[in-house]
Amino acid sequence: MTRTVQALAYSRPSVLASSGAGRSLGLETAGGSTPQGAEAHPRFFSGFLASPQIAARGLLAVADVAAARYYQRTLAASLDPVVTGNGDRLRFESFSGCCGVYARLDVLGEGLEGVKTGHGTTNVDVNHPLREALSRMGGDEPLHLRVGPDEMAVTTTGGAVVEKKVPLPDRWLRGFAEAQVASAAFDLRAELPAAEAVRFLRSLPTSSGAAARGARWVVPAGRTLRPTTRPVPGAVCLPGPQRLTALQRVLRYASALRVYGPPADGAAAASAWEVVLPGMRLTLTLSPDASRGFSGEGGVLEALATDEAAADAELVSVLLAWEPRIEPDRLAEQAGLPVERVRAALVRLGTAGRVGYDLADAAYFHRELPYDADRAERHNPRLVAARRLAREGAVVLDGELAAVRSGDRRYQVRERSGALSCTCQWWADYRGRRGPCKHALAVRMVRRGAAVAGGAR
């Protein structure tokens, strides 16, 4: 498995402290992106939280996911959450070490006592002493939140004094990015009021025993959800329900639970579970199986395979300005591109970690993950293999059919009404549910005349 080491440097540890006016939560930032470019310790917010105890528990839930492995639990995992300032809100994101759960806490404008936020993305230090302090926090005592160094630290800190080094596998990077693109295909399937939301979530298993294994399905029934043995129309997949445990942190404050997912087609699928809170939203997105991370889903491979999409994404990225809600129609007008090509460009930007997806708004938002997500794209196994097949002349086109030579075998790829199929074992196993196989992807590249590194078209 390809991996690098991510070094996170902070000027000091994050702390929760008491002061004469209440409490102060100082979240220290590492290097990140801002409208002014890269900064060592960007500052995004300084103000009061409208619901401090709820925000503290929501932040703990995000940190829970960052530190968790819901599959192969014996392996260590911990990477500090990512924070984005979008001008009118703060977003805290994390991704589990097993690559199967994405978490985000959106602290909206009404949760920030009217104070605007800065713009940019970076990591924030959430250390063990801070987690313990946040978990003990109670009552409605005012809480001042600072995201980034205070003015004193800006002028007096000579260098980083806290450094964390964390292994960063390519599949983790790909999964973090692909979770956004998977969410863009979801629709709202159910909304439960507070009492039913609490009852349903507390009825789920919290361990990975036999009751929590395999794909489970739930279907809306009045104001609640009921289990079903098969994916009937309107059903939502709930794979590995124990992975929703982090939502328990905020259940007592929930006003609703929203459930999102793709149309049920009989196969296990990803889904998203959003708890609505005062001035905030906490969302967990689950991969199709606890043992199956987002990195292997392959739903974005076709968007990565053509030169046109790459050029469009580069153009669209220049027009982004840390918007909390990206409007494709406006971008299309600015870029001089059809809306369909702008949407494809956003998919590609999503795989590079440059946009996230907000289900409640049904829109992408601009952020720049503080990792080299492009590296994960370059090393995507299927994409690399497909480019090699195309470069080596292994694809022979014949109308709707194509023959692909791979090793000692030949496979037949058929394209009908824009859909691809292949005679390989991968296609027999997944039928396109995890994206195209390397043979179909190579055919797509050759048909569209994509340039491949080191060879001709």
TrEMBL record:
It comes from the Bacteria. Pfam families: SWIM. Residues 411-448 form the SWIM-type domain. Keywords: Metal-binding, Zinc, Zinc-finger. This is SWIM zinc finger domain-containing protein. It comes from Streptomyces drozdowiczii.
